[in-house]
Amino acid sequence: MSLETTTLTEDLSSALADLQEQASFRPGQILAVGTSTSEVKGERIGTAGATEIAAALWEALESFRQNTGIHLAFQCCEHLNRALVIEESAASEWRLENQVSAVPVPKAGGSMAAYAYRHMKNPVVLEDIKAHGGIDIGDTLIGMHLRPVAVPVRSRIKAIGAAHLTLARTRPKLIGGERAVYQSPTDGTFCE
């Protein structure tokens, strides 16, 4: 499959815009990013990683981060137990203390996580997180890194290159049963 990296960047930017429209991420929230550059190329996950694809996707993701103020957490591959690369400042802000000693490289961590690690200002690798949303390019299974109630987000973009695209936002759990109220009353009354 011949890929135009400009198209990858544009498609991912469009998908991220769709995600933001439905998720309304606030500055400081965390977006988990799982990517198989092999799948983007049309190959089986973990077999044909590509730095040039990671670079094209990074361009869209970094622009999204700058425009929204969110933190990006890049999931590594199974060889690093799906640990995540994130800026140290984000880990500190969220008091995430599960740092591990590993440096992702394309063959042990994945091309995207390795690229992110090399291009972040002060990256650390965490064992896990609970992100506010996620983007999964190539069925990398990021669900383990999302908060408990994940909600699918539909996008006009269904694939990045040849890789299936899945987007998610999260929401707080709805508790309390049939008498529970989930929005503040607009008339100023609460309990009568």
In brief:
Helices cover 30% and strands 21% of the residues.
Task: Give an overview in words.
- With 192 residues, this protein is α+β, with helices and mostly antiparallel strands.
- It has one domain (5-179): Hypothetical protein TT1679 (Rossmann fold).
- Helix content is 30%, strand content 21%.
- It has five helices and nine strands.
- It has helices at 5-23, 37-41, 51-68, 88-93, 111-119, and strands at residues 30-35, 71-75, 84-87, 99-100, 123-126, 133-137, 150-153, 159-160, 163-170.
- Strands 1, 2, 3, 4, 5, 6, 7, 8 and 9 form a nine-stranded mixed β-sheet that branches.
- Strand 8 (159-160) and strand 9 form a beta hairpin.
- Helix 1 (5-23) packs parallel to helix 3 and helix 3 crosses helix 5 (111-119).
- The longest helix has 19 residues, at 5-23.
- The mean pLDDT is 94.
> Percent of residues in beta strands?
15-25%
CATH class: Alpha Beta
Low-confidence stretches: none
The CATH homologous superfamily is termed Hypothetical protein TT1679
> What's the story with the biggest beta sheet?
9 strands, mixed
Topology as H/E string? HEHHEEHEHEEEEE
Give the number of helices. 5
What is the CATH third-level topology name?
A: Rossmann fold
Which structural class do you get from the secondary structure elements? alpha+beta
What characteristic shape results from the CA principal axes?
globular
Mean pLDDT: 94
Strand tally is 9
Key features?
192 residues; alpha+beta; Rossmann fold; nine-stranded mixed beta sheet; 5 helices; 30% helix
